[in-house]
Design a protein that fits this description.
By secondary structure, the protein is α+β, with helices and mostly antiparallel strands. It contains 9 helices and 9 strands.
């Protein structure tokens, strides 16, 4: 993965990356089919491999593309979190309903088995781990839902709406390595549509970088064509997490207070 010279990607880099039509087309290709190699992407553009690589590098530096190694292959994934942060900063106050629909369009179209999301947060690994595992803090950015567990390997966790006797999800903690890595199986229960999707897997990876942390969330083991409710909320959740840790304020994104009225926050 390309290492950035900055810690929290400035919006200038996002706008600069999106200004070029080729880079926008590369993002369109990843929206159509996530997890592509450089060779697969190069075949779709009338330019050299080096030219495509140069554009991808700029998208990585802006945080709009995340790469992961699979054996000898380097796969590229569209990361919608920076766009969501721009939306939350300027758009949400004025045009939330239609803007949210546009930002969710990418998720409605995706049908790949693996989703990767990345964000930089100015905090410590320990505080970030606490925010992920503490039920009270988690409810502040995770649609009002609490998560409870003893956080040991092989233990069970539950997501619930406070005071509503409603179980939103459950699963097993497959790997627990604080404050670096948490791998969980997850079965969503908040609607009949998501219940039918069965079990998927969520991996949280925390990497300290100077005074900040890079948080990568990988949601995989999804069936092809899985209901976008399973993974479409991650940009909002991670934006809310970043806002809470850096400012102590709540971010009222669409659905962020969905279950908050069911009990005390």
């Amino acid at each position: 993965m390309t290492k950035r010279s900055h810690i929290i990607g400035p919006v200038d880099e996002v706008f600069k990356a999106l200004a070029d039509p080729t880079r926008r087309s590369l993002l369109d290709e990843l929206a159509r089919e996530d997890g592509q190699t450089l060779g697969a992407l190069q075949q779709r553009f009338p330019m050299t491999r080096f030219g495509v690589m140069k554009h991808l590098r700029q998208l990585e530096e802006a945080g709009l593309v995340v790469t992961k190694r699979r054996g000898r292959e380097k796969l590229h994934f569209l990361n919608p979190v920076p766009i969501r942060l721009v939306h939350d900063r300027w758009v949400s106050k004025y045009a939330e309903p239609w803007a949210a629909s546009l930002s969710d369009l990418k998720h409605q179209l995706e049908k790949h088995m693996e989703k990767v999301f990345e964000i930089y947060i100015r905090t410590t690994p320990e505080r970030l781990w606490e925010a992920i595992t503490d039920p009270e803090i988690r409810s502040k950015y995770n649609f009002g839902a609490r998560i409870t567990s003893d956080w040991t390997r092989g233990s069970r966790f539950e997501m619930s709406a406070p005071g509503a006797n409603l179980l939103l999800g459950e699963g097993e903690n497959l790997e627990v390595d604080p404050p670096r890595r948490l791998v969980q199986s997850m079965t969503a229960l908040w609607s009949d549509d998501v219940k039918s999707e069965g079990t998927s897997r969520v991996t949280w990876e925390i990497e300290p970088i100077r005074d900040s942390c890079r948080l990568t969330v990988t949601h995989d083991q999804l069936r092809e064509g899985a209901n976008s409710e399973l993974y479409g909320g991650w940009p909002m959740i991670l934006s809310g997490l970043k806002t809470w840790l850096e400012t102590g304020e709540l971010l009222t994104t669409p659905g962020s207070l969905m279950y908050a009225g069911a009990g005390p926050r």
